[in-house]
Amino acid sequence: MKEMQRKNPKNLAVSFMFNLSFLLSNFSSLNQQNFPPYGETFFKFPTGRFLDGRLIPDFVAKYANLPYWKPYLAPGHHGFVDGANFASAGSCVLIESDPNTINLHMQLRYFKIVSSSLKQQLGGRKFAFQNIAFMDCQPETKQSYGLNEDECYQDISELALLLNDALANATKQLETQLPGFKYSIFHYYNLLFNMTYNPSKYGLKVVESRCCGTGTYRGSDCGIGDYDLCSDPSTYMYWDGEHLTQYANSQVVEQFWNGGTNISSPLNLKELFELELDDEIQIKNASEYDNGALADE
Ligand SMILES: *[C@@H]1O[C@H](CO)[C@@H](O)[C@H](O)[C@H]1NC(C)=O
Ligand SMILES: *[C@@H]1O[C@H](CO)[C@@H](O)[C@H](O)[C@H]1NC(C)=O
Ligand SMILES: *[C@@H]1O[C@H](CO)[C@@H](O)[C@H](O)[C@H]1NC(C)=O
Ligand SMILES: *[C@@H]1O[C@H](CO)[C@@H](O)[C@H](O)[C@H]1NC(C)=O
Questions:
Q1: Which of 97, 81, 88 lies closest to 27 in space, CA to CA?
Q2: In this structure, is the dihedral angle defined by the CA atoms of residues 273, 275, 277 and 283, taken in order, positive or negative?
Q3: Domain membership flag for residue 290
């Protein structure tokens, strides 16, 4: 997640959401979950979100007292004066990884279109990043590798940890290069690791199996054919093979918003939102994004 804010002379903040894979928006791409029981816990209808209710950005909006981020591709005409959500389910960096998703380059292109239509020099000042999840023990992973209940697939972590290390390095570097750059990295990997091995601390009961789907761990096909559905999703960590339940997301955002420095660092999300920016700091203008300052992440 990347969140950018700029105080303009009228004190209006504009914020934008970008993603790789996990932050999803409805209406955004061919890749969406628009059938029941998706959405059943909160919206009461399928919204395209890959779970029973609200996603991490939905809860962040609630904590920050902002409206939900408007999906950039939502039907109709939108001014995006409060910002926009460019995120798309399963989004990737390389187009060839999945051509049906809105990859990072397309998201940045959409951002440029919005920023020029707002006729503002939008410059990123505050950035929130969510690092790559701990995925070794996801029900879908376990099911596809035929693992036992107490087994996980550790090769995934090697890659995730490498990327998370690179992200931490890159933000440290940006901090030295960009005056006024403020950020929060949410250690999502560690939180999901902790949730997996200590679920009761987060009010969760079931980690191995998901709430909705078919197969050993209900690892696939939620809402398709003859699937199983749990009666109380709020006791489950996973809604389907890959995606957390709304309840688990509420716990995640609680940590992201209020957590200590070993959960969100160097600032937590609340501190990042509340931070007063020094208006004297020269903000980076939109054309500087063309030089690839953001495109390498
Ligand atoms: C991050 O920085 C540390 C210290 O400079 C370095 O040892 C490490 O290799 C870097 N990691 C990545 C993935 O670039
Ligand atoms: C995970 O748990 C450890 C041990 O309780 C704690 O030190 C750490 O801060 C936790 N990290 C996250 C991100 O929750
Ligand atoms: C942060 O981590 C330290 C040790 O790594 C641990 O003692 C402490 O309890 C953690 N804090 C939280 C809030 O989890
Ligand atoms: C924006 O940044 C570019 C590249 O640094 C610079 O050439 C240009 O003059 C700047 N525009 C404004 C309006 O500050």
A1: 88
A2: negative
A3: no
Q: For residue 172, give the ligand nearest its CA.
A: 1
Give the count of domains, the chain.
1
CA of 193 to the centre of ligand 2 (A): 9
Domain ranges, residue 113? 15-284
Q: Is residue 296 part of a domain?
A: no
In a domain, 141, yes or no: yes
The whole-angstrom separation of Cα 123 and Cα 262 is: 28
- Over the chain (297 residues), the average pLDDT of each successive run of 10 is 43 67 43 77 82 88 87 78 78 76 84 82 82 83 82 88 95 92 93 94 92 85 88 94 91 95 93 77 48 37
- Which residue has its alpha carbon closest to ligand 3 atom 6? 262
The ligand 3 atom nearest the CA atom of 260: 13
Residue 34 to residue 27: CA distance in whole angstroms: 9
Interval 147-186: pLDDT, tens: 888 888 888 889 899 999 999 999 999 999 988 899 999 9
Residue tagged 């409206």 (tokens): 67
Q: How many CB atoms within 10 Å of residue 164? A: 21
Q: Is 22 within a domain?
A: yes
Q: Which amino acid is residue 44, in one-letter code? A: K
